[in-house]
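FORM 7B: Structural annotation worksheet

SECTION A. Query
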Amino acid sequence: MLWFQGNSMQLAKSSFGLFLRNLSASKTTLPVLTLFTKDPCSLCDEAKEVLRPYKSRFILQEVDITLPENSAWYERYKFDIPVFHLNGQFLMMHRVNILKLEKQLLKLEQQGAGG
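SECTION B. Predicted structure
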């Protein structure tokens, strides 16, 4: 049911568009947690399970170090996976350190909120 007329309808449309843009922008401001992995990797599978409760707070990007285009990462991390970077910066390796992850996520969230 529409009850807006003339300029009011236009204002409602532009406000809704702004709302959608802000919603979309907030989604893109989630930090990116990069998991350097390979298949199979049981420690990587364990790490992903540990991360499950936090999945709404970051975007998980997996990088298979065995692919030809990732050979530099393979040389760097072949004996250390899983390895995690948060927003392009090294965070942790071998196992998930929840305290470290939580501290860095809170820091980024506070920065994003203007804190």
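SECTION C. Observations
The mean pLDDT is 84. The first helix runs from residue 7 to 28.

SECTION D. Sign-off
Analyst initials: ____
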